[in-house]
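The data layer described in this paper is built around a simple, fixed record for each protein. Because each token names a local backbone shape, the row as a whole describes the fold. We quote a single record here, exactly as it is kept in our systems:

***
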Amino acid sequence: MLSAGLVAATLLFCPGCGNGLIVEEGQRCHRFACNTCPYYPKLKEVDDVLEPCPKCEHPRAYSMQLQTRSADEPMTTFYKCCNAQCGHCWRD
């Protein structure tokens, strides 16, 4: 379980110039952007998760996989509830 204040982070790079992407405030939400190029990566579709949010039972969540342990162990999947009032984060 992610504790309050703990954020899973990953560093993304621009495929055009190789610079690290920054997070900027868009019209409707925050998004990744390149300071050098006019590059904005497309957002992934939101998937239904096998289990609903453990806090509010909402059936949809954002997911992200990260290699948090050694390479011979499976990746850890992090989830964030799509319900704007909830926003609960958990991991598999």
